Structure formats: structure tokens, C-alpha cells
């Protein structure tokens, strides 16, 4: 996959970067670290410059995020409540109140979540879906996403430019960071599920 990414970037330049980053946002397994750091390296031997690479990558990131935000809007609160009211909700022991609480939580902390999650691999893409589901105002989502992704893109592009032909060292470091981030995400998710179901079982026993 890495060779294909590099080939597309060599052939299409800024357009290739924007396209690949947009796809990376929709399909997180595609490594943005490779695209961004190699893009930085390209500025050392082509006519491309750092600002251009950052702008192209940010445009691609925002476009990809908008697609996921749109998916989230389709899977809105009302549809989730219908799903919870069905057999699926009974199997998962979910209630309408749980959806309401999650929606209220995102209304209060959604801005921070959307912004800071842009620096966490995999989550940085997927966070756009709950933002859409909670019906976060598009303008706010657009601004937070643009700023967050611009910072992430700038750091990796600049590092790629500084490292030059050794850009793959940054990819290796980011790969470890991604694994740690994914592990922490799994731990937090499991802990949340355990706490959630313990509370639910506790309330059930009291009844």
C-alpha cells in the first residue's frame, strides 16, 4: 500500500495528496502518516512547497470529515432511538435514556472532543460520525475540524521535510503512537462497557 501511495503522490502532486487524505479520513486503515511525511519529503526534491502540501492535505482531510459527518447526520438521534426501542436495544440492554445522555454529553463536550480527537489515529477520522449524529452545527464542526487537522498535518509535513530521505523514521514512530492510541481506546471502551453494564445490573437488582 505504501508504494501505491507514494506512486500516486509522485504522479499527481498536490491533487494526489488531497485525494489520498480524503480517502484516509473515510477509510482510517490507510496511513496518513505515510502521506504527510512523504509529502514533506517531496518538498525537498520537487517544486512542491510545505504550505502547498499542508493546504492540500487539510482540504482532503476536511472533505473526508464532511462525508463522515453527513453519515452521522443520517444516523441521527431519532433513528438511534428507534433502533434502541427494537430487539437490538433489548439485547444490548440499551434504553432511550442512554441515547439522550450520550447526546447531552456531546452537546456539552463535543467541541473539545472533535478538536482534540484530530490528534488521535483512527479516532481522528471516526469522531466526525458522532458529531453528525449529535447534530453539531456544521459551521462549528467545519472550523474545529479545519484547525485540528491543519495542526496535525503541519507537524507531520514539517517533520517529513526536516527528515528528508529519512522520513520513514517518522512513520515508524507514528506507527508505535498509533498502536498505543488504539490500545488505550480499546481499554477505555471496555472500561466504559463494564461500568455501564454494572450500573445497569445494579439498578435491575434493586428493582
Q: Work out the number of β strands.
A: 0
Low-confidence stretches: none
Distance between the termini: 55 Å
Structural class: mainly alpha
Strand content: under 5%
Written overview of the protein:
- With 207 residues, this protein is mostly helical.
- It has one domain (2-78, 106-206).
- 83% of the residues lie in helices and 0% in strands.
- It contains ten helices and no strands.
- It has helices at 2-26, 32-42, 50-74, 77-85, 87-92, 96-116, 123-126, 128-133, 138-163, 168-206.
- Helix 1 packs across helix 3 (50-74).
- The protein is elongated.
Core attributes:
about 210 residues, mainly alpha, about 85% helix
Task: Outline the secondary-structure elements.
Blueprint: H1 2-26, H2 32-42, H3 50-74, H4 77-85, H5 87-92, H6 96-116, H7 123-126, H8 128-133, H9 138-163, H10 168-206
Helix pairs in contact: 1-2, 1-3, 2-9, 2-10, 3-9, 4-6, 6-9
